[in-house]
């Protein structure tokens, strides 16, 4: 079906605050959406449907069954397919006036500046803390607005960082809210989340992007909005722009922004879910398997011999038996891989393996 812009965007153009001028501003805009999960997929489809002229989707992950309860633009038929590619194909059918491209690789320190250089606004829809700081620091250095969103259980966080104000000063950035990157902050994979809070925060981020581009309304600048979905309460934490571009440029030179979720894991340190299941089902081979969970409160399909939280994990504290095979487990196989490397470094001749894909992969 052939449609015109005036037909497609009629309800927006009818708003006197938007009109033809505002709609053209949307059409002229280019937005980079990093992360195509619960936040990013909703954000990207909504922005394209609003008339953003160009969107680039960035995500290295594939669709999993456990994603589908909150990632509405993927289906069971998309499982194991690249999220960015599937989402781009959906948007092309849905939004005829948006040019959509995708990048099916992780964002790293080496490629981030090139990725965001041609876009007017960057949207952080990731669940990786190192990536959030990487995007923030790159946007500060490159003088790009960053629309930030994150989730923790029933809470959501939204802010628009690094906007040039009327006085020629850039507004607060992520390091003004949280100067140092915390360690071992759990994501929704390990703590769980309701799809309602994911949708609420995604649409808040969409709203921020639209306000920035159309110049209508007041973005959440120099503030961090914190919303609780159980109580329907929100408050805004005031921020002051104190961590300046020069300091962040120095941090950028020194920081690695390493995220194990995006790293390549060594194949010789892996055990597949299928192989582990076979070993555990066999009475003889199961005796030689020592299972160690590196996250507490996991819903485990098997009994582990020890639970040592990754924050406390130390190879020296484990009394090893070189006749056994040690298998590290966590929810998705990232923290357990870190533990695998720690133990292997301490005992090079010990057989230590990481459960590939973690409990999520084992249960699928």
Your description of this structure?
The chain is α/β, with parallel strands linked by helices and 364 residues long. The chain has 2 domains: 258 residues, Rossmann fold (3-Layer(aba) Sandwich), CATH 3.40.50; 97 residues, Oxidized Rhodanese, domain 1, CATH 3.40.250. Helix content is 36%, strand content 18%. It contains 15 helices and 13 strands. The chain has an 8-stranded mixed sheet with strand order 3-2-1-4-5-6-7-8, sandwiched between helices. A hairpin with a 2-residue loop joins β5 and β6. α4 packs parallel to α5, α4 runs parallel beside α10 and α7 crosses α11. The longest helix is centred in the middle third of the chain and has 20 residues. It starts with a helix and ends with a helix. 39% of the residues are buried.
Keywords:
364 residues, alpha/beta, 5-stranded parallel sheet
Radius of gyration (CA) equals 23 Å
Q: Low-confidence segments, ≥5 residues, pLDDT <50? A: none
CATH class of the largest domain: Alpha Beta
**SSE order, as H and E?**
HHHEHEHEHEHEEHHHEEHEHHEEEHEH
Shape: globular
The count of strands amounts to 13
What is the distance, rounded to the nearest whole angstrom, between the alpha carbons of the first and last residues? 40 Å
CATH overall fold name of the largest domain: Rossmann fold
Helical content, roughly? Answer: 25-40%
Residue fraction in strands: 15-25%
What does the largest sheet look like? 8 strands, mixed
The CATH superfamily of the largest domain is known as NAD(P)-binding Rossmann-like Domain
Total count of domains: 2
- Look at the structure and give the mean pLDDT: 91
Strand order of the largest sheet: 3-2-1-4-5-6-7-8
Structural class: alpha/beta
Oligomeric state as shown: single chain
């Amino acid at each position: 079906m052939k449609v015109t812009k005036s037909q497609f965007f009629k309800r927006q153009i009818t708003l006197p605050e938007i009109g033809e001028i505002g709609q053209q501003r949307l059409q002229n805009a280019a937005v980079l959406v990093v992360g195509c999960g619960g936040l990013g997929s909703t954000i990207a489809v909504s922005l394209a449907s609003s008339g953003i002229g160009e969107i680039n989707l960035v995500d290295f992950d594939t669709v999993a069954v456990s994603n589908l309860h909150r990632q509405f633009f993927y289906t069971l038929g998309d499982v194991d397919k690249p999220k960015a590619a599937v989402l781009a194909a959906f948007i092309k059918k849905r939004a005829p006036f948006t040019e959509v491209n995708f990048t099916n690789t992780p964002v790293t320190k080496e490629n981030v500046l090139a990725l965001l250089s041609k876009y007017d606004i960057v949207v952080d829809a990731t669940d990786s803390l190192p990536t959030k700081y990487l995007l923030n620091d790159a946007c500060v250095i490159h003088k790009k607005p960053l629309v930030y969103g994150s989730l923790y259980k029933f809470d959501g966080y939204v802010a628009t960082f690094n906007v040039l104000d009327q006085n020629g000063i850039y507004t607060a950035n992520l390091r003004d809210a949280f100067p140092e990157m915390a360690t071992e902050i759990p994501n929704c994979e390990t703590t769980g989340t309701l799809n309602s809070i994911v949708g609420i925060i995604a649409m808040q981020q969409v709203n921020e992007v639209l306000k920035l581009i159309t110049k209508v309304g007041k973005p959440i600048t120099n503030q961090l909005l914190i919303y609780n979905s159980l109580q329907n309460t929100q408050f805004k934490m005031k921020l002051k722009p104190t961590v300046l571009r020069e300091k962040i440029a120095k941090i950028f030179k020194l920081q690695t922004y390493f995220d194990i979720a995006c790293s390549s894991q060594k194949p010789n340190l892996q055990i597949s879910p299928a192989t582990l299941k076979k070993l555990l089902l066999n009475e003889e081979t199961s005796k030689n398997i020592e299972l160690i969970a590196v996250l507490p409160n996991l819903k485990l399909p098997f009994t582990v011999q020890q639970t040592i939280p990754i924050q406390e994990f130390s190879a020296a504290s484990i009394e090893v038996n070189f006749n056994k095979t040690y298998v590290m487990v966590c929810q998705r196989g990232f923290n357990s891989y870190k533990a695998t490397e720690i133990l292997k470094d301490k005992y090079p001749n010990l057989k230590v393996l990481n459960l590939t894909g973690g409990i999520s992969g084992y249960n699928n």
